[in-house]
Amino acid sequence: xxxxxxxxxxxxxxxxxxxxxxxxxxxxxxxxxxxxxxxxxxxxxxxxxxxxxxxxxxxxxxxxxxxxxxxxxxxxxxxxxxxxxxxxxxxxxxxxxxxxxxxxxxxxxxxxxxxxxxxxxxxxxxxxxxxxxxxxxxxxxxxxxxxxxxxxxxxxxxxxxxxxxxxxxxxxxxxxxxxxxxxxxxxxxxxxxxxxxxxxxxxxxxxxxxxxxxxxxxxxxxxxxxxxxxxxxxxxxxxxxxxxxxxxxxxxxxxxxxxxxxxxxxxxxxxxxxxxxxxxxxxxxxxxxxxxxxxxxxxxxxxxxxxxxxxxxxxxxxxxxxxxxxxxxxxxxxxxxxxxxxxxxx
Length: 346
Known about the structure:
By secondary structure, the chain is α/β, with parallel strands linked by helices.
């Protein structure tokens, strides 16, 4: 495969800088009849709806899987010892005071001291590609929620209200994500309540999204190494998924990655799983889960997320749908509109 095969042109004005309000009034492209066993599918049907019409497309017995992670305020602002401004996004903890992180600063060097509010500071120990290893003077977890802000994607140029970058069902006890599971941003509690009343089962799992989700593929697709993300599927979630009598619907790429990374028994049943995953899904991948539909936003050109969606569907079908989305003035990326991809015909 050639990475350029997953490229497309997108003028800046299509990149959503703020969410649709109300959030359930965003546009939803419905793509039915995809078949990833063939290159092209003449039976594909495309419709254009509003997200609140999702309830009309799902049936009693369907199972809807959500990622209930919450975005943490892990982006902090500070200065170098020279006075230059900087941004730091706190990542994985390596030892008590040593963390991996991403730093936006002019000419970062090993040994440079970085100073933040509330008496917090750190020293750069190591740099590897886009990641830095730093050692803090005290536990940053004690002050990060006080002095930090949500680490929104780099293509969003304006401030975003915190509530607009959290799903309506995010779990305050699971606040460790560095980015939102954006397909879930379209849901309201009213939508979820209506789905439950219709007999659709709601399943919540958790995957903490890492900032590495925005890392570009460099070189050959097959050689790309994915960032590692922690996820959990508990016994209740596994039972609901295994006992699904209708269709299985994944809300977002994070949810699908979790189901594909989970442990399965010899009968193909999903098992409770808690671990990290660095799974990279691209065309040619053989799916383990019985996912029938995928709800997802419109993704960046050449991104790992676009490759995942192309693996679930077909590259040509997805890129054609993206061209139609531009014609219909859909809004792209994290705060934009969404697409519901179905392997079945309408």
